[in-house]
Known about the structure:
This protein has 428 residues and is mostly helical. The protein has one domain: ABC transporter involved in vitamin B12 uptake, BtuC (Orthogonal Bundle). The protein contains 17 helices and 4 strands. It has helices spanning 3-16, 23-33, 36-49, 56-72, 79-104, 112-129, 134-159, 163-182, 207-234, 242-264, 271-289, 291-301, 303-308, 313-339, 349-361, 373-393, 397-424; strands at residues 188-189, 203-204, 269-270, 341-342. The protein has a two-stranded antiparallel sheet. Helix 6 (112-129) runs parallel beside helix 8 (163-182), helix 7 (134-159) packs antiparallel against helix 14 and helix 9 (207-234) packs antiparallel against helix 10 (242-264). The two termini are 41 Å apart.
Amino acid sequence: MNKSEASDLNTTRAGGGTARAGPAADRRQSAEGEQGFRGYVSEITRKLRSGELGALPGVFSVVVIWTVFQILDHQFLSPRNLSNLSVDIVGTGLIAVGIVFVLLLGEIDLSVGSVSGLSAAVFAVFNVNNGVPEWLAVIAAVLVGAAIGAVQGFFFATIGVPAFVVTLAGLLAWNGLMLHVLGASGTINLRPQGLVYGLTNHYFHNTAAAYGLAALGTVAFFVTSYHDARRRRAAEVLARPLTEIAMRTGAVAVIAFAVAYVLNQFEGLPLALLIFLAVVVGLDFVLRRTKYGRKIFSIGGGVEATRRAGINVAWVRVSVFAVSGTLAALGGLFLASRVASVGQTAGSSILMINSIAAAVIGGVSLFGGRGRPWSALLGMLVIQSIASGMLLLGIQTTVQYMITGGVLLAAVVLDSLSRHSQKSHGRA
């Protein structure tokens, strides 16, 4: 082989991705060189050592919390309590999903609690006080949340006012507007058996509903995982082997059918949980499988580089805040459904704190660019499990706040340490 042929071969290898330069590339090359399940285990180990913890802290927290409370009170893992827990996480969880989108940009939205309360108040006034059909009142409430989010996003993305300041002002302004909308009475009771009332009070009592959802989720997980692995192998990058996909699918099946079994021991599949899972799955698809989602991650990773790539950063930012406002409005309706009324305490600051805490505890980075909608579900499960356990034990709410604050601080510390570790390994 002459020098020219050798040069051409080296160029071809570099272009085809089988030869890479630099320490980070060498690590990827060595991981890709291992075959099958062992290679994937090596990749997971390398990620953990470099600080990519993912959802592991959240999962570990749930296991510890459930174990401790079950030891202290055997009713904690009863079908009734777990079913109630699955419904209680939905309202704040939906708001937390919107927070995930904002945190992926590396920003914050402090107004979500007030927006949720105002949207619920708009619905109650339209439907209960003025007789507007429920479906139309729901649309109006959701549009109010979306419009508020878009306006706040405009001030941040176009005018340049920091998101912290814009949404802090919104927290005060929208809460005041909510009190004004509610009027002198201060509390509006929802119509029993109505559309919004049924959001958290309707259950699918047929056992086939819960088991069918578990089977559908398991099959969907396997199909998407297998398809993703095929695409990655076609692109000649590290992919999960079939044995590992089968093991993960088995784990998902065990969890899904166990949850279905527990829910069927009480009232069946809650409508609220079904809607929440549909929203999480849908938005997870948007973030991971669409150009729009990739733009959000790109901005969180580096605004200037994203702008130079030709992406309309301002538009993406405005749309993300609109998404946050929309989900805050939906969460407000579910919270109102849970208590069957809208009062002056709706949209409290604790709601905003819990929604942000849920996203961070679930694994979303405060520095932007890392997280998934599933993080909101996991984080909300941690927070609501603490609240449920404290209620069963008769412990004061103040203690619950202290414990939740400690868990949040631990999550932020882990996030910071993870980021430093990734930088030292050339991955951030």
